Amino acid sequence: MNQYKVVLLKGDGIGSEIVEQAVNVLETAGELYGFSIEFQEELLGGSAIDAVGTPLPQKTIDACKAADSTLLGAVGGPKWDGLSGDKRPEKGLLGIREALGLFANLRPAVIFPELREASPLRADIIGEKLDIMVVRELTGGIYFGERGRTAENGQEAAYDTEKYSVGEVERIARVAFEMARKRGKRLCSVDKANVLESSRLWRATVARIGQQEYPDVEITNMYVDNCAMQLVRNPGQFDVIVTSNIFGDILSDEASMISGSIGMLASASLGSGKAGLFEPIHGSAPDIAGTGKANPLATILSGAMMLKYSLDQPEAAAAIEAAVSKVLQTARTADIYTEGMQGVRKVSCSEMGQLVCDALKASR
Ligand code: IPM
Ligand code: MG
């Protein structure tokens, strides 16, 4: 039997509730598909600041490096908002991505057929199906470039730097091209090449890698402002989108909403090896923490992505996705529930987790 070691970083806010449900689902999947996972909890974010005074303890980095993969809840909250940039919970998240070399962030925006009416977009705009993969560069660009405070004409000023090397663009482009090759063979590279020098290098590099290594994949280029507009005008035109760290952060939130709720979308952060970091794309939602209202599906689906991309259990991953689809026919958490729905009841975070486990068992 395959045995894996997975680190759990529950983080802050709703983090512990949603991770707990994902763990239940992964354990159920293990029983059904013949593998077992040994979970080990470590600290990250605000809870780490409270416990040991830093958002990213060295012990957390060491544990993640030694594990087969890592599952993360969410970090941050108003309690730590007053801290300076380097001490904030978010610094822990950026730090762990960097420490593990996770340069590629995959954020699939898919619409479950059961949730079509939960999308804020009209049915005719959504079209037949919606299945976009946003490939976001995760360890470079303005998130990691030089930043600081300075003085200009006697006034305080601040700056952040967007910088990409050819090598950084090449490796994220290859991830995106490989992804496109397995899907609809269409890649849209998003930049701001009409203004930014770093974008001009990005665009030229993506074009070269495409010509040399992926002539079978069609490349288009789009400016980020246009892409933000096209995502709500005609989302069906996109297959794979590849973009920089900051543009990917923004566009993936937008793409997620098309799918009905940000509470539904999973993500995978990968480096050059098999191990990765899997997390919902939503935040820690401190306003609903502890109320049982959180939607655990994005974290459960992140667990499925872990099985697929890190642990070589694609069958179990597909079964979890199917179980989620099935459960959505009759049960919804508050974020995707509308009053008066026929045959659908409103459920809590833990009930939702249990229902997915039940559906998983019933499918085997
Ligand atoms: C995300 C988040 C993070 C990011 C924050 C919490 C630092 O918004 O994962 O999209 O900007 O990468
Ligand atoms: Mg974000």
Could you characterize what this model shows?
- By secondary structure, the chain is of the alpha/beta class.
- It folds into 2 domains: 203 residues, Isopropylmalate Dehydrogenase; 139 residues, Isopropylmalate Dehydrogenase, CATH 3.40.718.10.
- The protein is built from 12 helices and 14 strands.
- Helix 1 crosses helix 10.
- The mean pLDDT is 96.
Features:
Isopropylmalate Dehydrogenase; binds 3-isopropylmalic acid; globular; 10-stranded mixed sheet; binds magnesium ion; alpha/beta; 364 residues; two-stranded antiparallel ribbon; 41% helix; 22% strand
Subunit arrangement of the protein: single chain
User: Spans with pLDDT under 50 lasting ≥5 residues?
Assistant: none
Write down the domain tally: 2
Order of helices and strands: EHEHHEHEHEEEHEHEHEHEEHHEEH
Large-scale geometry:
globular
Average pLDDT score: 96
What is the correct CATH architecture of the largest domain? 3-Layer(aba) Sandwich
* Strand residue percentage: 15-25%
Class per helix and strand makeup: alpha/beta
* Small ligands present: 3-isopropylmalic acid, magnesium ion
Rounded to the nearest angstrom, the radius of gyration is 20 Å
The CATH class of the largest domain is identified as Alpha Beta
Q: Counting H and I runs of at least 4 residues, what is the number of helices? A: 12
Order of strands in the sheet with the most strands? 2-1-3-12-11-4-5-10-8-9
CATH topology assignment of the largest domain: Isopropylmalate Dehydrogenase
Q: What distance lies between the first and last C-alpha atoms, to the nearest angstrom?
A: 18 Å
